[in-house]
TrEMBL record:
Family designation: Belongs to the G-protein coupled receptor 1 family.
Keywords on record: Cell membrane, Disulfide bond, G-protein coupled receptor, Glycoprotein, Lipoprotein, Membrane, Palmitate, Receptor, Transducer, Transmembrane, Transmembrane helix, Ubl conjugation
Chief subcellular location: membrane
Function: Hormone receptor primarily expressed in adrenal cortex that plays a key role in regulating adrenocortical function. Upon corticotropin (ACTH) binding, facilitates the release of adrenal glucocorticoids, including cortisol and corticosterone. In addition, MC2R is required for fetal and neonatal adrenal gland development. Mechanistically, activates adenylate cyclase (cAMP), the MAPK cascade as well as the cAMP-dependent protein kinase A pathway leading to steroidogenic factor 1/NR5A1-mediated transcriptional activation.
InterPro entries: ACTH_rcpt, GPCR_Rhodpsn, GPCR_Rhodpsn_7TM, Melcrt_ACTH_rcpt
Claim: Transmembrane helix is one of the keywords in the record: yes
Membrane topology qualifier: Multi-pass membrane protein
Name of the molecule in the record: Adrenocorticotropic hormone receptor
One cellular component term from this protein's GO annotations in UniProt: plasma membrane
Residue stretches spanning the membrane: 43-63, 70-89, 123-149, 161-183, 189-213, 234-256, 276-297
Originating organism: Calidris pygmaea (Spoon-billed sandpiper)
Lipid biosynthesis among keywords: no
Protein location: Cell membrane
Molecular functions per Gene Ontology: corticotropin receptor activity
Amino acid sequence: MSTERPSNLLKHPGQTSIPSLENISGFSLNVTDCTQVVVPEEVFFTVAAAGILENLLVLIAVIRNKNLHLPMYFFICSLAISDMLGSLYKTLENIFIILCKMGYLTRRGDFEKKLDDAMDSMFILSLLGSIFSLLAIAADRYITIFYALRYHNIMTLRRALVILAIIWTFCAGSSIAIALFSYEAATVIPFTILFPLMMFFILCLYVHMFLLARSHAKKIASLPTSTVHQRTNMKGAITLTIFLGVFLCCWAPFVLHILLARFCPHNPYCACYMSIFHVNGTLIMCNAIIDPMIFAFRSPELRSTFKKMFFCARSNWNW
């Protein structure tokens, strides 16, 4: 068996860009009678463009409104960047597949292999960025609820920026390493384990947060502003729970696709699930659309900033 690492991005449109999954889509059609579900390119690019634009609006809103220059909103911006990378990854991958079909790109060229590695890195960077951004938001909400009086001393803006710098440096380095060595089982297995492990850790943090929140609320109930403050903090915790639920629904099917393609590619049932690859990829981009809607719905300050931006742009257009 050849040890050469082939380019997988330009293989089959139903094939994921993780190198260890090469030829999975083509093989799955031979071992299962399930019809491959294909998302129309028009729908695909529309969803991707909407996700990129919505998250770009979130970034612009936080930058323009100085009242939003807070650690929590900086962590939200980190999540928005991860969502943008996810949509951009799927968009570029689809473009390269189209170019391959048209004959503008070859399947085994050196340039295509480099593109393959770049796309793999972007996908992994988006996934890791989302996971650690959610973890940072969870930690921020935890400190807000249980260390409310010392929150501004613990979570300063400088510390938040340092945390984000560490997160993205780690994610960037990990994404490059995993993309370059993802054909090795020793690299693929820790990556696939990381997703459920981090989700379990965040879930445990949530359970701990909500269990202690009630008793903590009773202890500070005598304070004059405690009721309003506690409601605000719990609202942030609920918002974070919604983020986590949406993230799991949108990313878990694709991660499951990777696991099945890596560990049971010859199983007809696994191959049948992998026939909905396009749907799983579209769900990733739907996550990028849903998150900004949650931002706008749950945050009055951010919603107000969106309105001001919209009316300002509308006034300039009329002028």
